[in-house]
C-alpha cells in the first residue's frame, strides 16, 4: 500500500474538491516558487562588491580543459569518499549546533554570558535570482564567456511534479539552484558575498540613521552653544563607537554625512532655516590647541579604533581571535607586507586599512640585530619616521 496525496487546503483557505484540483494547486505552488517579478535594488547591493578576478584567471578558466586537469581531482579522492568539500557531512553541522546549544543551556554560573545567533535562510537555493547571480559574477570580474557557460548550466533545468506516482505539469524556472548539483554550493557561496555586502550596508545605515535621529530631535530644543557642544561630543560620538571598533565606515556616505549634520546642528541650521557655514568642519574638528573646538573627525576616530584593534592582535597572541586571524591570514607573511584580498572578511580588510597609521608610531626593538634593517626599519625612538636620516654611503658596505 503506497502513500497518496488526497485533498489539500489551498492558500485562500478553501479545500480542493478532487485529486485533479489538488494536482493543479501543487503545480501552481512550485511555479510561484521558481518564478518572480523583476527583483529591485540589485545595483545597490553590487556597489560594494569588489572585482577580484583578474584577466589571467579568466584566461585560465576559458582555456581548453586538459586530460591532466580532469585526472588530478578525480584520482586525488579517497576511494571511500564522495565528491564534496573534504567529505564534510551535513550531520557535522547538526553536531556542532547541538554542542553549542548544550553549552549555552548548561551555562548557569559566572559573570560572563554567551549568546547564539541563528540565521535562517528560507529555502535559500530556491530563492537565488538568476538575474542577480549573473550580474554578481560579472561584477566580481568573471569574463562574459565564462559567465555564459555558468548561466547555461543553471538555466537549462526544468521540473515536473510527481503527484500520486504521476508526473504532472511542466515548470520552466527562472530562478533557483538545483539541489545536489556539485556546482550549486559554489554559486551559493558567491551569492553570499552579496548578502555580506547587504549586511554591512545595513549596519552602516543603522549607525547613520541612529545618529541623525538623535540630532534631528535636538534641533527642536533651545540649546546653548555649550549645550550643543556637550551633546555632540558625549552622545553623538559614542553611538557608532562599537561599529567603528570592528569596521571601516564608508567615508562619504557615513563619516562625512554625519559630520555635515553635526555642523548644521552646531550652527543652528534646520530644514526651514539654513545658515552659512563660516567655519568648515575640518577646522571645528581640530583640537583646541590648534584653534579648533575638539570635535572628533569620524574618519580619523574610526582609523584610531581600528589601529588599536590591530595593535591588540599583535601584542596579545594568546587571544582566540588573534590565533584565528593568524592561522587564517598571516601564513608566514609580515602584516606590513601583506596584501589584502577581496575574499578576506570585512573585519580583516577594515583593520588592515589602519596599518599605515599604526606603522607611524611603531618602533622595532633592537635585539640580536639579525632581523633588523638599520636603513629601512623604524627603530629609532623619538626620530621622525623612526628611520635613519643620514644619507647612505654605498662604499661603506652597510
TrEMBL record:
Superkingdom in the source lineage: Eukaryota
UniProt xrefs under Pfam families: RVT_1
Alphabetized PROSITE patterns for the sequence: RT_POL (PS50878)
InterPro entries on file: RT_dom (IPR000477)
Domain Reverse transcriptase per the UniProt entry, residue ranges: 1-283
Coiled coil: none
Name of the protein: Reverse transcriptase domain-containing protein
Amino acid at each position: 500500500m503506497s502513500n497518496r496525496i488526497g485533498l489539500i487546503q489551498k492558500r485562500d483557505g478553501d479545500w480542493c474538491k478532487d485529486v485533479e484540483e489538488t494536482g493543479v494547486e501543487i503545480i501552481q505552488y512550485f511555479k510561484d516558487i521558481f518564478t518572480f517579478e523583476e527583483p529591485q535594488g540589485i545595483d545597490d547591493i553590487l556597489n560594494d562588491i569588489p572585482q577580484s578576478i583578474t584577466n589571467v584567471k579568466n584566461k585560465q578558466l576559458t582555456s581548453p580543459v586538459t586530460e591532466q586537469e580532469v585526472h588530478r581531482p578525480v584520482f586525488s579522492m579517497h576511494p571511500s569518499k564522495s565528491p564534496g568539500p573534504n567529505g564534510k557531512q551535513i550531520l557535522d553541522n547538526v553536531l556542532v549546533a547541538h554542542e553549542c546549544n548544550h553549552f549555552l543551556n548548561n551555562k548557569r554560573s559566572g559573570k560572563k554570558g554567551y549568546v547564539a545567533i541563528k540565521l535562517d535562510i528560507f529555502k535559500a537555493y530556491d530563492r537565488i535570482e538568476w538575474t542577480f547571480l549573473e550580474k554578481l559574477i560579472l561584477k566580481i570580474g568573471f569574463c562574459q564567456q565564462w559567465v555564459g557557460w555558468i548561466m547555461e548550466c543553471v538555466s537549462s533545468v526544468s521540473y515536473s511534479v510527481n503527484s500520486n506516482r504521476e508526473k504532472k505539469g511542466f515548470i520552466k524556472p527562472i530562478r533557483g539552484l538545483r539541489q545536489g548539483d556539485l556546482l550549486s554550493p559554489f554559486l551559493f557561496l558567491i551569492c553570499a558575498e552579496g548578502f555580506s555586502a547587504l549586511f554591512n550596508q545595513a549596519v552602516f545605515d543603522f549607525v547613520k540613521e541612529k545618529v541623525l535621529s538623535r540630532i534631528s530631535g535636538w534641533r527642536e530644543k533651545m540649546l546653548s552653544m555649550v549645550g550643543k557642544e556637550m551633546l555632540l561630543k558625549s552622545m553623538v560620538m559614542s553611538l557608532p563607537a562599537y561599529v567603528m571598533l570592528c569596521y571601516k565606515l564608508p567615508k562619504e556616505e557615513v563619516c562625512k554625512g554625519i559630520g555635515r549634520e553635526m555642523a548644521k546642528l552646531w550652527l543652528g541650521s534646520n530644514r526651514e532655516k539654513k545658515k552659512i557655514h563660516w567655519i568648515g568642519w575640518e577646522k571645528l574638528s581640530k583640537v583646541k590647541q590648534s584653534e579648533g573646538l575638539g570635535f572628533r573627525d569620524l574618519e580619523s576616530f574610526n582609523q584610531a579604533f581600528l589601529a588599536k584593534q590591530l595593535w591588540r592582535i599583535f601584542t596579545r597572541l594568546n587571544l582566540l581571535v588573534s590565533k584565528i586571524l593568524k592561522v587564517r591570514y598571516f601564513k608566514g607573511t609580515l602584516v606590513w607586507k601583506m596584501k589584502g584580498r577581496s575574499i578576506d572578511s570585512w573585519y580583516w580588510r577594515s583593520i588592515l586599512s589602519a596599518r599605515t597609521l599604526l606603522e607611524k608610531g611603531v618602533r622595532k626593538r633592537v635585539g640580536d640585530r639579525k632581523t633588523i634593517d638599520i636603513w629601512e626599519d623604524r627603530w629609532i625612538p623619538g626620530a621622525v619616521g623612526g628611520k635613519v636620516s643620514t644619507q647612505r654611503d654605498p662604499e661603506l658596505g652597510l
